Amino acid sequence: MKSQIAALLLCLLNVSRAADTVVSESVIDAPVAKVWAAWTTSDGLQSWLAPHADIDLRLDGLMRTNYAAEGQLGDPGTITNRILAFEPGRLLVIRVAQAPEKFPFRAVVGEMWTVLYLSPTPEGKTHLRVVGLGFGPGDEAQKMRAFFQQGNDYTLAQLQKHFAP
Asked: For the range 96-104, what are the long-range contacts, defined as Cβ-Cβ under 8 Å and sequence gap of 24 or more?
């Protein structure tokens, strides 16, 4: 009986985590050093993610992106992420510090954060796991969770295209 209760509690815990988490994973056809540079340098971000990007890779540094070709960093379309933690070549943790003016979930976006895990594969490629956390149970937070699931999947597909042979 105790093992059944433990299994039920574990199952409920996993369901709770699923509502709070977004996970996207991919294998990128490039070594970790190149994928790390694509995420953590201004030139790297501009090469595949956004036409306007800069990053100050340090604790509490900022990563700013603007996806509009006619935009510029600092205008109302700029996304600013704060770097919460990093381990070179292995881990990057960011949190939205300022959402773009027209972002539909501005009221709750500050409650979530994103963790990028990079690890080498035996073939010399990179396994990239992107985990979004902190999505609350409310309707707006769950709509934002779905938005980020789709967005993170798209972002990984773009990175795969960038490094495709």
From this structure: 97/62, 100/76, 101/76, 101/77, 102/76, 102/77, 103/79, 104/143, 104/144, 104/147
Maximum separation of any 2 CA atoms in the chain, in Å: 63
How far is residue 117's CA from residue 126's CA, in Å, rounded to a whole number?
A: 10
- Going by the DSSP 8-state scheme, the letter that residue 22 receives in this structure is E
| Strands 91-98 and 113-120, bridge-based pairing | antiparallel
pTM confidence score: 0.87
pLDDT recorded at residue 18: 52
Which residue segments constitute the domains of the chain, with CATH numbers given?
A: 21-163 (3.30.530.20)
* d(C-alpha 107, C-alpha 83), whole Å: 20
Question: pLDDT tens digits, residue range 39-51?
Answer: 999 999 999 999 9
Q: Compute the distance between CA of residue 35 and CA of residue 52 in angstroms, rounded to an integer.
A: 18
H/E element holding 65? strand 62-66
